[in-house]
Amino acid sequence: MMLPPGFKSNKPNQVCRLLRSLYGLKQASRQWNVKLTKTLQDNGFIQSSADPSLFTKRSQTSFIALLVYVDDILVAGTNDNQIKELKQMLDSSFKIKDLGKLNYFLGIEAYRTPNGINLCQRKYTLEILKENNFLDAKPAKTPFTTGQRLNNTDGKLIINPEEFRRLVGKLLYLTNTRPDISYATQQLSQFVDKPRDIHLIAAHRVLRYLKGSPGKRLFYPSNSPTKLLAFSDSDWATCTETRKSVTGYCVYLGKSLISWKTKKQATISRSSAEAEYRALASTVCEIQWLSYLLADLLVKIDSPTALFCDSKSAIAIGENHVFHERTKHIEIDCHVVKQKVHEENEWKDPVDNKGNRKPKTNWRAMKKEWNMISTQKQ
Fold first, then answer.
1. Protein fold of 226-369
2. Which of 89-103, 198-212, 227-241, 307-321 has the highest mean pLDDT?
């Protein structure tokens, strides 16, 4: 560190020694995280391997979980006295500010009822509409025009690309509670380098869709069964320029939607079956990560996860090793689907205590009975 102008000292080449991290320095956030992690671990908390921002502590009679985002902390537990002790410990170490029960966290509004908890970003959505002058716009029924394919050639370059980039960035954060705009936002985020007027029109349609339902929210019931269900799909060669496919999946814990994603695949698929198989591999990896995360939260899954796919060819590739001629060009990591299917078949016990063969689960009937409603309007 250089001496500030006007500082006089009798010793030559004297510098200042930094005793604490300051806001604005590159290492400030890392040093803060290291100190917070060490403080929690010294008090008996265990850092999750699946998510480094999650800390848990359990005893014979209680369990407490702590989620960290920079300097914002969310605490949940089964014992109020332990939570009070945790707050006192954090206050003595860092001088925290207690905001009470959860109602607003990182722009996400939480409303709790005896039946469950509702999560939405209504205030954040209204701020986006107000910033872009869309509070009085005519609502749209869908966030994206059916069959529309965006590219880098149609339309004219917009004069102010920062406006488009800022809007897409806010829409990306809005997908934390709005899975219905995930596909539209994924399509728009491909053109942030050189946006054109046709891309801005498509982004404005998303705003018009949000105008019709700014308070749409996710509901997580308190009596939901602890069973993981996943749905996977892909749109083969949907990108008109690179001919890459788009992966889409969603994962449910009981009737609660807990994970979803829409993302373009890294490589080009030669067939729709390959695109579906790659989407299955991405979904399997997400399910595996969620299993680790639920294990850290002491949530026990007693049955294998049901993964639904509408491609018979992809299902056959995952179950059968005979399709070598058609799949030998697919990366090795995609075959994690085969491994998990094999593990599931070994995990199932086909015989009960009396020696009778257990009936297989009718996943086709379960799919018909499954209620796909995961969001509701305010």
1. Nucleotidyltransferase; domain 5 (3.30.420)
2. 198-212
